[in-house]
Amino acid sequence: MTRPTDRLEAALASIEARGSQGRLAFTEVFTESAKREAFAADRRVASGMTKSALDGRIVSVKALFDVAGTVTHAGSARLRKLAPAARDADAVERLRAAGAIIIGKTQMTEFAFSALGTNPHDGMPANPRDPARVPGGSSSGAVVSVLEGMADVAIGSDTGGSIRIPAALSGAVGFKPTSGRVPTTGAFSLSSTLDTVGPIAKSVADCAAADQILAAETGAIPFKAAAPGNFRLIIGRGRLFTRCEDKVLEAVDRAIAICRAAGIVVEEGSLDPVLEHTDRIDKLGTFPSIEVGATLSQLGISSLDGIDPLTRARIEANKAVSAVDYVLMTRHRQAAIGAFDRLLGDNEIVIVPTTPIVAPLTSSVQEAAGFHEANGLVLRNPRVANLLDCPSVSIPIPGPGLPVGLMLLGQRHSDRRLLSAAACLESLLH
């Protein structure tokens, strides 16, 4: 195993070697504190007293997490004058306690409120597979930090796909847990209803290792891939397959054929009956647009001046939602969750494309119309898992072209079983 200090030096060298792109991936790099953490990890490795699977691994955290002594600006110019955080977010505390080396805070879209990775205040890191394309968001710097060798694991937030979308568009693994599995205390809240915290990494195993620490699971059974006969896949045909680019459908069909050939039971199905409930929510409003206003109010932000116009438009679109409609939205969500619970049997997993399109060209989303079109498309499938409060993971489907993600949705609180199934699919597809 590479020494933690050597691993850190390689990560820091990767940031430096990429120049402006390396700096765009991070809002802050904690060089000195990371070196202290790496030296301590070296000593633990030498003595055989490592704390966890992430002890001595390099971890980046999204810029919406509190890190003691730094300002939690969540990608927004309006929040730069806030007081520095007095303590680490709960997720960061758990990572440090497990021996992870926190290398820095990563770039993100403003307030985590868009899915392409754009940020007019700080700029946007390029997609690692094609610099002319967006990396996906809102955890844009997170995915770039992993794929460009700047971190082993990145911790992001996922309110409507902000972990799984960049994973899919850039070619990584991204995991969204069941709500409440990982504490969100100390993280800027886009939506108190939908926010979750999870990892992005190059492998399902690394995501599983991070999840175990973030969820504070002690004495857990060692992680391993599920056997092909231990779960069933349900293809979620219907509207989540509409408007898909041919290259996305071809990649998904190829993955399904590989799974069937390996002996996995794959059946046709649909989430459309469940989505009738989520449609009722969308006719009234969206949780993030409403709830981010409460977060900003608590932070003393009384106007939207200076906020990205694209973000501002989405917030203002739901200002007129009444209290009655908000309550109805929560009730429709509970009905959707119940319908999904009844749809899936034990060890059944729904699969759909993570996003219906590959990463758009940056030039195509410069204007508002192009931005909103692409943003809505890449959010469409992943946000379903947040509304249904189920664990979901995106794994890359290998191929010659741009990255395509396969999204798995499992029963609520089946997080570890879902990750094991994802590891099985990962081994088959690679």
TrEMBL record:
Amidase domain segment(s): 24-419
Q: From which residue to which does any coiled coil extend?
A: none
List the Gene Ontology MF annotations in alphabetical order: catalytic activity
Q: Which PANTHER family match?
A: AMIDASE AMID-RELATED, TRANSAMIDASE
Protein name (database record): Amidase
Give the species this sequence originates from: Undibacter mobilis
Taxonomic lineage is:
Bacteria, Pseudomonadati, Pseudomonadota, Alphaproteobacteria, Hyphomicrobiales
